[in-house]
Write a structure and sequence with these properties.
Shape: globular
CATH superfamily of the largest domain: Carbonic anhydrase
Number of helices: 6
Bound molecules: zinc ion
Largest sheet: 5 strands, mixed
Helix content: 40-55%
Structural class: alpha/beta
CATH class of the largest domain: Alpha Beta
Distance between the termini: 88 Å
Oligomer: single chain
Length: 201
């Protein structure tokens, strides 16, 4: 084999290695499309629900919550946290569909976003990349889920008719724990404003 052919061969091999996850996904899609029966699914989800979860590959809501295609809208980000971006996207969806729906927040144990709570790491990301990850950091999932409910409650662009609840998924047992039962943002705002008024008295 000439040197030139050897180099060409190595390039092709490297391209094959690089493409292999994509080939795997396309092959799996063939199996999915072969038995496809979902052409008539409506755009709006059957369970009238949006789940926010972490991007961690172990916590895919479709598996963890046994979702069928077309049942639930799933949003995912680092930690499954309510960020300004998530709030804006949710407000946009609420304006588009013009009806109330449920938001289920789902964080999980052993989350990579716990590393974002490290002040030194946070500072390094800000210094080197100009990225502020403070709103994505996780320190205590139970408390952070309640903080995220407060973030939704305090976002004026979100309609009060939306309902929010929170789950914590345990990556070791596969079970979810209900951290907060469903409440509308309007109820939460009334409670906030009522508490504020009595505290001021
Ligand atoms: Zn995570």
């Amino acid at each position: 084999m000439t040197k030139e052919n050897l180099v060409k061969c190595e390039i092709v091999k490297s391209e094959e290695d690089h493409a292999s996850p994509l080939r795997t996904l396309i092959d799996r899609n063939k199996g999915f499309a072969d038995g496809f029966t979902a052409a008539d699914l409506p755009m709006l989800p059957k369970l009238n629900t949006m789940v926010l979860a972490c991007i961690d590959a172990r916590v895919d809501p479709a598996y963890v919550l046994g979702l069928e295609l077309g049942e639930v809208v799933v949003a995912r980000n680092n930690g499954g946290r309510v960020t300004r971006t998530f709030i804006d996207e949710t407000a946009t969806i609420a304006a588009m569909v013009a009806r109330s729906f449920d938001i289920v927040l789902m964080q999980h144990t052993n989350c990579g976003a716990q590393r974002l709570a490290d002040p030194a790491f946070q500072a390094a990301l800000k210094d080197k990349l100009g990225i502020d990850v403070s709103e994505s950091a996780i320190t205590d999932q139970r408390k952070d889920l309640l903080t995220d409910i407060d973030r939704l409650r305090d976002a004026p662009q979100l309609p009060g008719t939306l309902t929010v609840s929170a789950l914590l998924y345990d990556v070791e047992s596969g079970r979810v724990e209900e951290i907060a039962a469903p409440r509308t943002l309007a109820e939460l705002r009334t409670q906030r404003d009522g508490t504020g008024a009595s505290a001021a008295l």
